[in-house]
Amino acid sequence: MQTQVEEKITKKGRKSFRKKGLDGKKANKHKDFKKKSKKLTDFDKYYYYLKSVQSPETDVEFLRDVYIELKGTRGKTLREDFCGTFKILCEWVKLHKEYQGFGVDLDEEPTEYGKRNYLSQLKEEQQKKIKIINENVLNSGLPQADIIAGMNFSYFIFKTREVMKQYFTNCLKDLKKNGILVLDCFGGSACMSPNEEETVHKDKGFSYFWDQDSYDNITNHVQFHIHFKRKGEKKRKKVFSYDWRMWSIPELRDILEEVGFKKSHVYWEGTDKDGEGDGNFKRTEVSNEDCEAWVAYIVAEK
Ligand SMILES: C[S@@+](CC[C@H](N)C(=O)[O-])C[C@H]1O[C@@H](n2cnc3c(N)ncnc32)[C@H](O)[C@@H]1O
């Protein structure tokens, strides 16, 4: 069973934030919601965020597989930077008994939520493999890892080359021998103009809105917001807001090379028969595609 999702405003090509290609792994989520909805007295913004923009189960499979593809062995330690509710780490430690992880986030609100709602659901031995650090990812001396992942475009918060360089330099230092840095990234012409897109989650009784409020053509600075509307309720505006710079793939790869990463690769998403992203990311050097909105991964090798 696929999650029932309807696009109110449909565009050709792929959209920002991975909402497609999530495959059958979302199958249990309807059941999951029924269970949870009984308990929902307040508005749980992280629950709606998870259902709308995250796909932790598929993210960890990508992280596992890309390390194996590039290094021929398992990368065991994952550091999730900007980890928020660290759902990715919680899925990571489920994948293999030797996997462990560190989560880094400045803000205790999402990390406390993650401890209450996700960490607590893991087996005791899995819980012990996760450590959360409430610090700035720009700090030096953060834990070493085989894989450092910056997901959901969180590093777009760094608006200057200088700060991005500092972040990548620290990551390079903190990666173990043979380590990789994995960054997701998005773009396309549809992201470069103000527009709002509603995704109706019929089976879950809510709508998710991705609001591209402003885009500055000179600085590439953007203001994006996420709104939600539960059935029968008023729209809750600006539940999450992002003040970002849109970085291009070549700009990011240039900085990665400049700070000393040996190589970087781009994993570009395949296309299904309707011209949408199919959730399969393959290493490539040219896209050869006219895409209004795309999501890709950059993977840099130490
Ligand atoms: C867009 S959320 C991403 C959450 C999660 N990674 C995900 O996949 O959805 C960005 C997170 O980055 C955190 N953050 C922003 N700047 C940071 C910094 N300099 N150091 C550490 N965390 C930071 C915020 O507190 C927030 O939880």
Q: Based on DSSP secondary structure assignment, what is the total number of beta strands?
A: 13
Bound molecules: S-adenosylmethionine
User: DSSP helix count?
Assistant: 8
Measured distance between first and last alpha carbons: 40 Å
CATH homologous superfamily name of the domain at 53-188 and 247-301?
Answer: Vaccinia Virus protein VP39
Structural class call reads alpha/beta
Mean pLDDT level: 88
Care to describe what's here?
The protein is of the alpha/beta class. It has a domain at 53-188 and 247-301: Rossmann fold (3-Layer(aba) Sandwich). 28% of the residues lie in helices and 32% in strands. The strands form 2 sheets. Strands 4-3-2-5-6-13-11-12 form an 8-stranded mixed sheet. It is globular and about 50 Å long. The relative contact order is 0.18. The protein binds S-adenosylmethionine (SAM). S-adenosylmethionine binds at residues 54, 82-84, 104-107, 110, 136-138, 151-152, 154, 157.
What key phrases describe this protein's structure?
302 residues, Rossmann fold, eight-stranded mixed β-sheet, five-stranded antiparallel β-sheet, 8 helices, globular, binds S-adenosylmethionine
Concise description?
By secondary structure, the protein is α/β, with parallel strands linked by helices. The protein has eight helices and 13 strands. The chain has a domain at 53-188 and 247-301: Rossmann fold.
